[in-house]
Every structure is written in structure tokens, then in C-alpha cells.
Amino acid sequence: MLCMQLFAAVVQNTCLQLLQDYCAPKINYADVRKRVQHAFAEKAYEIADATAAVLSLSKEGATLMEEIRAQCS
Hints:
Layout: H1 2-22, H2 29-72
């Protein structure tokens, strides 16, 4: 009898979960698109800043290498 009660409880919980998922609010895709567009724009600025930093470091490194070569020659 305990086994049947446990089975009934599991089935009931599963059915309730399925109903809750079915009755979930609809997704506002226009809002999702807007948020994703903002996120992409922010990420583009972050990548641009990181690229600028790497290019600056690369230029500084090249300048230092030229100075070292000039002094060691």
C-alpha cells in the first residue's frame, strides 16, 4: 500500500509540474531581442576596448624592442 501511495504522490507532483510549465507566462520576444541587442552592443564596446589595449601594448613592446636592438648594436 505504501508503494502505491508513493507512486500516486510522484504522479501527482509530475502532473502538477507539467501543468505549471504549460501555464507559464508567454515570453515577450520583442523584449528579449531588445535586451540581446543591448548586450551585444555592450560586448562590442568591451571587445573594442580590449583590442585597443592589446594594440597599445603591442606598439609599446615593438618600441622597446627597437630601443633594445639600438642599444645592443
